[in-house]
Amino acid sequence: MDMKRYFLELAYNGSKYHGWQIQNNAVTVQEEIEKALSLLLGIPTGIIGSGRTDTGVHASQQFAHFDAPEIADRNSLLKKLNGILGKSIAIYEIKEVVPDAHARFDAIEREYLYKCRLRKSPFDHEGSWLLFQNPDIDQMNKAAALLLEYEDFECFSKVKTEVNNFRCEIKSAFWEQNGHELFFHITANRFLRGMVRAIVGTLMEVGVGKINPDDFRSIIESKNRRKAKAAAPAQGLYLCRVSYPDRIFK
């Protein structure tokens, strides 16, 4: 059977899921999509995502690839997928790609957004971190700028994780305020498990004056997760952009 490779572009609200990756005795985003695809295509169909998100973390743009016989009507499959999947998962597009394209290994850049609120909202309590004091954004941005000077971020990685190295090329990292909302933007070629939430939690300690930017630098240089502060809550974190080279798309 002649198989083609396809990319799914999708988004999800992670509040009801135990992360992206399939687990025993837990509902995950990957599992839900694989079940729907397998049902509609009539063959067992696995997918591989651009990266894993933890329990409660969201994605406004995520990609995954799968192999299947040629799909004659991708728009029809798209509509059926969205009809089967619950309200928390949306499939935006099905794209044919070159046979060796890989959603994880071919990604050249990823961007995360972290949302905070400075006052209670009845509409977004599952999608942001409610703060009870106003942090100093200027100090947080001074500390965030230091991230661009380093490549080893072991201090912000989960302790039990299987990686070859802790090196990441961070290309931008900054806070901005819009009314009663605070947004942290960070872009890199790759991220370690738990890295963004650990960075946000530590930067927030800078914002409330418990540590200063020089302390933040010392934490990075320590390469010790115990030196960094508690991770920010999962519900404020969004994988919001994944970029690929044009060559993989047909």
UniProtKB/TrEMBL annotation:
Keywords for this protein: Isomerase, tRNA processing
Enzyme active site: 54
EC number: 5.4.99.12
Binding site for substrate: 112
GO biological processes: tRNA pseudouridine synthesis
GO molecular function per UniProt: RNA binding; tRNA pseudouridine(38-40) synthase activity
Top-level class of the enzyme under EC nomenclature: isomerase
Stretches assigned to the Pseudouridine synthase I TruA alpha/beta domain: 150-245
Catalytic activity: uridine(38/39/40) in tRNA = pseudouridine(38/39/40) in tRNA
Signal peptide per UniProt: none
Pfam families per record: PseudoU_synth_1
Function: Formation of pseudouridine at positions 38, 39 and 40 in the anticodon stem and loop of transfer RNAs.
Family indicated by similarity: Belongs to the tRNA pseudouridine synthase TruA family.
Subunit structure: Homodimer.
The protein's name: tRNA pseudouridine synthase A
Gene this protein is translated from: truA
